[in-house]
């Protein structure tokens, strides 16, 4: 569906949350923020996801990443649901806000509507969507899952590491990359520039084309 995507600026919406009113841009601040939506409160997959987000929250905090949940139920429903989430994930408290969107206005502006999911009243429900928003308030990455598939928090953490590394260095992360693995140098960086930028050295893969574009280094 058309709407907010990578490179777009997130609208500075005022949200009612479990932690009071917030403006998205103020909440993101100078760091990163993961905005993630859920089809509904008191649903099985969503409960496991919110619990795991709470468990991973310290890892995101180390990286300067805030969390912001979103569901169409109201704030009081969210607060009751949090009790179930925390009971399901002992030792992990939901310290991040969960926004309410009973009028379905926020999910439309954030491109988080599932066109195939409706509640008993025929109202549209959020998709299982996730946006990583950068300090410039632009979407850096989006993930979209069907209601039947829970997200993998190890992958969410991995892509955050990749995005932040790419933003800091002129590199990209190759297939199946994990923190600590070699990265590839951007084709826009010449070999001479690469020698200055990566004094630890880099390895150029010998390819049949003889084009020296696949260069690995540590960063």
Structure notes:
This protein has helices spanning 24-28, 44-62, 75-88, 105-109, 153-168, 191-197, and strands at residues 14-17, 20-23, 32-37, 65-71, 98-100, 113-118, 124-126, 128-133, 139-145, 171-172, 183-185, 203-204, 215-217. By secondary structure, it is of the alpha+beta class. The chain has a seven-stranded mixed β-sheet with strand order 2-1-5-4-3-8-9. Strands 10-11-13-12 form a four-stranded antiparallel β-sheet. Strands 6-7 form a two-stranded antiparallel sheet. α2 (44-62) packs across α3. The model has no long low-confidence stretch (mean pLDDT 93).
What are the salient characteristics of this protein?
single chain; 30% helix; 219 residues; 4-stranded antiparallel beta sheet; alpha+beta
Which helices and strands occur, and which strands form pairs?
Elements: E1 14-17, E2 20-23, H1 24-28, E3 32-37, H2 44-62, E4 65-71, H3 75-88, E5 98-100, H4 105-109, E6 113-118, E7 124-126, E8 128-133, E9 139-145, H5 153-168, E10 171-172, E11 183-185, H6 191-197, E12 203-204, E13 215-217
Parallel strand pairs: 3-4, 4-5
Antiparallel strand pairs: 1-2, 1-5, 3-8, 6-7, 8-9, 10-11, 11-13, 12-13
Helix pairs in contact: 2-3
């Amino acid at each position: 569906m058309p709407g907010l995507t990578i490179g777009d600026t997130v609208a500075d919406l005022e949200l009612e949350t479990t932690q009071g009113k917030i403006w998205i841009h103020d909440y993101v601040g100078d760091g990163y923020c993961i905005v993630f939506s859920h089809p509904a409160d008191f649903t099985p997959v969503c409960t496991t996801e919110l619990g795991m987000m709470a468990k991973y929250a310290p890892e995101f905090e180390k990286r300067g990443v805030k969390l912001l949940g979103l569901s169409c139920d109201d704030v009081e429903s969210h607060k009751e649901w949090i009790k179930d989430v925390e009971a399901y994930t002992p030792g992990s408290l939901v310290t991040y806000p969960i926004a309410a969107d009973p009028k379905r206005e926020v999910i439309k502006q954030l491109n988080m509507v599932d066109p195939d999911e409706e509640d008993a009243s025929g109202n549209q429900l959020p998709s299982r969507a996730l946006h990583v928003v950068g300090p410039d308030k632009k979407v850096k990455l989006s993930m979209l899952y069907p209601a039947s598939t829970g997200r993998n928090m190890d992958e969410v953490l991995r892509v955050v590491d990749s995005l932040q590394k790419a933003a800091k260095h002129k590199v990209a992360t190759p297939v199946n990359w994990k923190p600590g693995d070699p990265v590839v140098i951007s084709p826009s960086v010449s070999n001479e520039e690469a020698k200055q930028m990566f004094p630890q050295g880099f390895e150029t893969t010998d390819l049949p084309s003889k084009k020296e574009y696949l260069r690995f280094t540590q960063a």
